[in-house]
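Progress report, Aim 2. The chain analyzed during this reporting quarter is listed below.
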Amino acid sequence: MRPPTRDDVDALVGPATPHFALQIRARVRELIQDLPADDEVRRYGEEQAALLERLALASSKAEEGARESPGRVGWETLPSSAPAAVPLPRARG
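Predicted C-alpha cells for the chain:
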C-alpha cells in the first residue's frame, strides 16, 4: 500500500458534515497513524482531525462570507449557528 497523501486526507475531510464528523475523524486518524510524528501529511491530518472535532459541535465548515447576526429575526429558533471555526461549547454532564 502506498503512503497516504494530503489528497487522501482531503478526500475524507472535504465532504464532511457535522453529523459524520467524528466518524470521519476516526478514519483520518487511522489513515495517518503509521506515519512518523514529523511527517508533513501526518501533521496535516492532525490539523484536519482537529477541524472535524470542532465541526462535530458546529453547523457548518463555512469559513468565508459574513456571519449571520444574532439580532436577525428568528435567530433563537436556529438549532445551531456555530461554524467549525467557533463551535458550540461541549455539554457538561
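Residues 6-59 form one domain. Residues 40-55 form the longest helix (16 residues). These observations will guide the mutagenesis work planned for the next reporting period.
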